[in-house]
Write a structure and sequence with these properties.
Structural class: alpha/beta
Order of helices and strands: HHHEEHEHHEHEEHEHEHEHEEHHE
Strand content: 15-25%
Distance between the termini: 37 Å
Helix content: 40-55%
Mean pLDDT: 85
Number of strands: 12
Shape: globular
Radius of gyration: 23 Å
Number of helices: 13
């Protein structure tokens, strides 16, 4: 069983056809078919059959699909670790939800990476729905965000920080002087939202569903900070992490709304493989993230300089 054979099979599973797999791997269809034929002979299993609705996988084919992704991820991780050993550096790959990546990750990662001269931390933003597959395929070492509704038994979940999501408006907004706003009135407003509003997982989508905010009243911005800036100008209602807008509320640039389902309380959690399967730096971060110093860095920042910070939509590297 070779990596080329596993890649061919994994691509076929992921894309649903040999033709699509060949295009994705930049090889011919016959090359993909030959690789799959070798696997069938070696494993003594048909793996899948073509049907009118696509490919139907055997139980053995489904098991191989899971193992192929895991083995290929482990191979990539091994190559990376060997190269790092030669250069004398380590790399920790962190996946995060967009809300955590923008508001809490910079301070945490800056402080954590600064504790070791040989450690680089790479941050990328993903939907929490993908956390389990990213970890199990070794595409990332750590995932941070809301706790999954169903947690894979092979993953370790560490809760480390609670937070509140509140609704805010600018001082000139018609609702700024309201002591309490009803659900019907909230549904009629323009809602200014960051990228965490996209999808169905996480605190912000949950609040929008509970309030029944129609999609045509939702405006999505590239960052949560941009949506809050629009709210300051009276353009609508924004959902904000409470600790991130404390100063704006104190200075009168924003007003907090009270109403049904508000404030909403969420939590951030750190997911990793068990210690025996995860890189040592992942276990180090899991222990560090629950310390008072880490909490302070997430809430107040750790002095991330402009030259070292990148927007959350990009991969960020701290060294």
């Amino acid at each position: 069983m070779t990596p080329a054979q596993l890649r061919a099979f994994a691509a076929t599973v992921r894309l649903g056809s040999v033709k699509a797999a060949a295009a994705d791997l930049a090889v011919t269809e016959s090359a993909v078919s030959i690789h799959i034929a070798h696997l069938r002979r070696e494993l003594g299993d048909k793996l899948f059959a073509r049907t009118a609705n696509g490919l139907a996988f055997t139980p053995g084919g489904l098991r191989l699909a899971s193992r192929a992704a895991e083995l290929l991820g482990l191979q990539d991780r091994t190559i990376l670790e060997v190269r790092q050993a030669g250069s004398g550096r380590r790399l920790l790959r962190v996946a995060a939800s967009s809300l955590f990546a923008e508001h809490a990750a910079p301070g945490l990662i800056e402080l954590f990476a600064g504790r070791a001269d040989d450690l680089d931390v790479e941050l990328s933003v993903h939907s929490p729905q993908k956390f389990a597959s990213l970890l199990l395929t070794r595409s990332v070492d750590v995932a941070v965000g809301p706790r999954p509704a169903t947690l894979d038994s092979t993953l370790t979940c560490t809760h480390f920080l609670n937070y509140q999501v509140i609704a805010v408006v600018g001082p000139d907004h018609p609702l700024a002087t309201s002591t309490s706003v009803g659900a019907a009135e909230l549904r009629g407003q323009t809602w200014l939202l960051g990228p965490s509003a996209v999808g169905r997982t996480g605190m912000v989508p949950s609040v929008l569903r509970r309030l029944g905010i129609p999609e045509h009243n939702q405006r999505i911005f590239q960052s949560h900070a941009a949506s809050v800036d629009e709210a300051k100008r009276g353009k609508g209602v924004a959902l904000a992490v409470a600790f991130a807008v404390t100063k704006d509320l104190a200075e009168g640039d924003l007003r907090r709304l009270s109403g049904p389902q508000l404030p909403a309380r969420g939590s951030w959690n750190l997911l990793t493989l068990p210690d025996r399967d995860a890189p040592p730096a992942a276990a180090e971060l899991r222990r560090f993230v629950t310390t008072p110093r880490a909490t302070q860095a997430m809430l107040r920042g750790a002095g991330v300089t402009a030259g070292r910070f990148r927007p959350a939509i990009h991969v960020t590297l701290w060294s």
